[in-house]
Every structure is written in C-alpha cells, then in structure tokens.
Amino acid sequence: MKNMNTAKRNPILLVLAGILVGALFFSNLEFSFSGFNSPEGGSAALSGKPNYAQAKSESENFPALSLKSFNEAFVQIAESATPSVVTVYTEKKVSGRFTSPFDFFGHQFDDFFAPPGMRPREENSRVQKGMGSGVIVTGDGYILTNNHVVEGADTVSIRTFDNRKLTAEIIGTDPKTDLAVIKVTGLNLKPLVIGDSDRLRVGEWVIAIGSPLGENLARTVTQGIVSAKGRANVGLADYEDFIQTDAAINPGNSGGPLVNIQGELVGINTAIASRTGGFEGIGFAVPSNMARKVMTSLIESGTVTRGYLGVSIQDVDENIAKAMGLEKPEGALVGTVVAGGPAAGAGLKTGDVIVGFNGKKVSGSVPLRNRIAALAPGTSVKIDLLRDGKPLQRSLRLGLQPSAEAAGEAASAQPANSSLGFSASALSAEQARSLGISPTAGKVVVTAVSESSNAWRAGLRRGDLILAINRKPVESFAGYSASVSGIKKGELLFLLVERRGNKIYFAFNL
C-alpha cells in the first residue's frame, strides 16, 4: 500500500519540481523601455552617438508558480519584443536576359508575375525585390539588420508592427560581419534593449522573431535554446563569432532579433545551416555585443575601424603542437609578420605562439582575430607568447587595419578580373618585399580577389603565388595569361598556390 501511495505522489512531485525550476528562471521578468516616442522631423543623417534604449530596474518579480504562469512568461517576452521587429523591403534595378516570365528558383526575391499574356524581351531591365527583417534599437529610428538584406539596394523601406510603411535610409554597412544600419523617421517607435551577449550560456532559452518566407508571415515567433557560442569558420563573414540556436529560422528571418528571457536583444539572426534550404535546427546569429560596436561605429563615423596587429595567424593543431614541443594544441601561431606593422615593431617573429592577449587566454586564431578587430586603433595591448618554448611578453599599440587595396602596392589595388574573380601580375621586387616573400623571377602573384567570387569562397587570397593552373606549371606571367585565356564561364579552375611557404590546392567554377 505504501508503494502505491508513493507511485501516485511521484507525478505531483515532478510537476512541483518543474514549477520550482521555472520560478528560478523567470524571476525578475518585468520589461520597461525608454525612448519609445521620438518626434517627427529630422533626417537619417549621422547623429553623433546613438541613444540606445535602457532597461529600467523594477522591484516587481514575475514568479512562475504554475504551468499557466510559466506559459504567460513566454507570452510576455513575445509581446514585449515583437513591436520592435520590422519587415525590411528592398528594390534594386537590374538588367539581364530573360527566358521566362516566372523566375521562382533562380532569383529568390524577383517579381513573381509578368503582365498577363506577355513574355519579357531577351534584354530588359526590371526591379528586383527583396525582403528581410530588422530590429529597432533606438527611439529615433535606427534599425539593425543584415548587410545581405540591403546590399546593392536602390530603395529601402520597412513595415512596422502597427502596419506603417516608412522609407528608410542606409546609414552604413559592414560586409565583414554581415551587419547594416538603416534609419527611419516616425512617431512611437519602440526600441529593443540590447543585452550582453557575453553573458549568454549554452542551454539558455531564446526567441527568434522575423518574417520567414514572406510578408504574410511577418513577426513570426519561434522558441529554442542557445546550442553553442563562438561558432567560426562557417564561411558566412570575415569576422565570425556566431551564436548557434535551434530556434526555427528560415529565409526572411535575416536581420531579425534573437531575444533572451529578459526580453533583451542578444543576437541578429543571419543564416541557417541546411541541406534542403529549410529549417534543420541550426541557425546562426551575430552576437549583440559585436553588433552594437559595429552599429555605434557606423553611426558615429560612417565606417567601421578595426585594430591591426600586423601578423598572419593560424590555429595550433595536435601535429603542430607536437612538432613545436607544446603541451597543448592551443594558442595562435604567427606566420607572416608584416614589415613596419605594430607586431614587427614590438619584436614578434614568425613561429611565435600567442597564448595570451590583454591578460586573457588565447584558445585559437579566430577568437584572437575577433578580439583584436574589436579594439580601436591606438589601443595599448599586452601579448603573452611562447618562443622556442620560452614565455615572453610584448606590449604594443594596435594600428589601423588597412583595406585590402591599401595593404599592397599599386598593382594590388586594381579591381579583380570579373571573369575569373581575381587578378594577378608578375611578382615585382616591391611586391615581394611587401608580402615578405622571395622575389624569384617568373612568379605570378594574386593581387586582388573579389569577395563575391567563387575564388574568394574557395579560399584564394591576395598574395598567393600561382604555381600551376589545371595541373600545368606556371613559369611566367605570359604563360599564366595563356592558361586562363581559354577558360570559359562555368568551367572548373584548378589552382596550385604557395602561401607562406605552404602549397595549397583550390578548385572552383568560374
């Protein structure tokens, strides 16, 4: 009889335990924002420092004492954050060759219908329409979204929660993080408070909001957890430190917010990993701390400036650690040290392993690269390193990260060949000195790579020495030119290149 009573009480105990856990999670769940009402007028011009919304401290808690109140907590998060989410519309005039009045598959955001009974001409111009999401982060109308949502757009507009359509201006974009800032003018704009993404923990509940698959599904709310932090080498941007989540994200969610259980913006939804093009439980968001720094820089100066150390770095794997006599495969291995750069001035050398940066451990090259880029040029930093197994420390001031064009000689500032996706030239003595390589006669060097090309996506970079094309050795620039001249659009290009003494193969379609 005692066992039967215990069995009957167990489900009740489980429910009570669940409610207790929910109460711990959802205490202090009260939202209040400042700066909701902004006067009409003004313009989208730079306004100095952005006036971000701030959360007010409240003494009232929201304890989850029942399943109903647990459910209500999620409802309040959604109701609080949703009015800050907008649908972003873009239009771009394009010209091209048309073969069908419908183009559902080749261009995701193209007009879906041609005039009844009419077939577009072979050569024509049209308006390419796009759509994404965004989140209002200041009361005077600054909105965060993705660069790929507004890239190349001639006009941008947004639709608010209360169904107003407002014209927007692009304040600035940063392709290296896939972020963009746009601005609108209007009354009663509700900004979302920006939270601290560094405090996120794997397993926390989060909510994604956006307009997946079309405007008819605007401000769709999905719920999940933080699956991982610090995801890099995904191939989506130059600077990657993504939050991974299993909250459902689909095409159209790009630029929308990822929100924590305090109702704060902790990420900008950017992309999904999918074999089918649909949701498979792996979504990526730019952390709010990175987004805030980029946005502040774009608003204050119209551009993003990043710190520059002046070295190339790579991860230390198990084989490298073993060869160098290191205890663990961690840190960032220094390759090229740029002559005249901050690192060279401080005495860093090829083969140094950076294990600490400003007192914090360096786990790998990507986190270090992100930390350097997040600091302003001129910032004083301390670097802990290992040289031949011996610990050393160096102090230096970060420089200003040069653009790809400014980093090299005049020849490397030439635009990339549009048909190849990259440009090359005979290696000159000046280029060799700039790149820190031997000025051997007959060598061909990559001088520019278009960031929108298959060559860039495959991994080809400025400064790579081309040794062979389609398995045929390159012994002169004339030989290189002859080899690439017969390659047609859509054909495979197979390159063998030398980069810092290492031979690497790249294969991609033109």
From TrEMBL:
Keywords: Hydrolase, Periplasm, Protease, Repeat, Serine protease, Signal. The keyword Repeat applies. PROSITE patterns: PDZ (PS50106). It is found in: Periplasm. Residues 298-364, 424-501 form the PDZ domain. Pfam families: PDZ_2, PDZ_6, Trypsin_2. Its main location: periplasm. NCBIfam families: degP_htrA_DO (TIGR02037). This is Do family serine endopeptidase. It comes from Chlorobium phaeovibrioides.
